[in-house]
Amino acid sequence: MEFVIKSRANRVSAAALSLHEIARLSQIILHRGHEVFRCHSRFRIGSTGTRTEQGSWFFASSVGRFDLADPRGTLNVAAGRIGAVCESLGVLTLDTEIPVQEINSRKLVSLRLPQEVRLVDFTDRKAAQNGKILTTEMSGAAASYSAFQSLAASIDASGNDGIRSRLRFSGPEQEVGYFIFGDAGPRDWPDGQEQSIAEVVTALGYQLVDDESLPRSEVSFNE
């Protein structure tokens, strides 16, 4: 008999879950008025190059980790300020200096959910035991997010409102994000209270520098 040893580097998490598997996972409820955070571009660049004010509520059907396919979309928010800012800055969080231009091009807002949402909790032990979902894989690097998006689609089809998962760039704080499903596109909901991004990054030990030649964040805010 020949045994095949799989590399520990291979992805092992499921790319889709059945209704039975989803029913065995832990869920959390975020009630109406629950505070979440989002850090995003101040402006949206249209197809003609025009620049308009970017709203804080947007359900994307793009290349994001848990984005759903149009006509559905996913709203990406964080449980805390640090998680929201670090996810926005991406790989820049691996440096010691952050260009002030990157800070000025964004805004950090605290938002209040306008409705209750029920989320499948990928950070809970039951996700691994009952759904073959590894918490670290859900926030890890990947050449393609197709498997993650397929997984999100199965959660959406089950009637749940989204996913709770660790954020990739939150570092030792291990903050979580909420990936909330809905119809694709913007929402005309209250913009929330803007907060200081500079205060967050300096408190984390980063130095703000005025240098446009430094690397820029790879995160796209066009959608």
Give the SSE layout.
Layout (H helix, E strand, L loop, with lengths): L18 H5 L3 E4 L4 E7 L1 E3 L5 E3 L4 E2 L12 E7 L2 H9 L7 E3 H5 L1 E7 L4 E5 L3 H7 L3 H4 L7 H12 L4 E5 L9 E8 L1 E2 L6 E3 L1 H7 L3 E3 L14
Parallel strand pairs: 7-14, 9-10
Antiparallel strand pairs: 1-9, 2-8, 3-4, 5-12, 6-11, 8-13, 10-11
Folded structure, characterized:
With about 220 residues, the protein is α+β, with helices and mostly antiparallel strands. It contains seven helices and 14 strands. The chain has helices at about 20-25, 80-90, 100-105, 125-130, 135-140, 145-155, 195-205, and strands spanning about 25-30, 35-40, 45, 50-55, 60, 70-80, 95-100, 105-110, 115-120, 160-165, 175-185, 185, 195, 205-210. The strands form five sheets. It has a five-stranded mixed beta sheet. A hairpin with a 5-residue loop joins strand 3 and strand 4 (about 50-55). The longest helix has 12 residues, at about 145-155. The N and C termini lie far apart (about 50 Å).
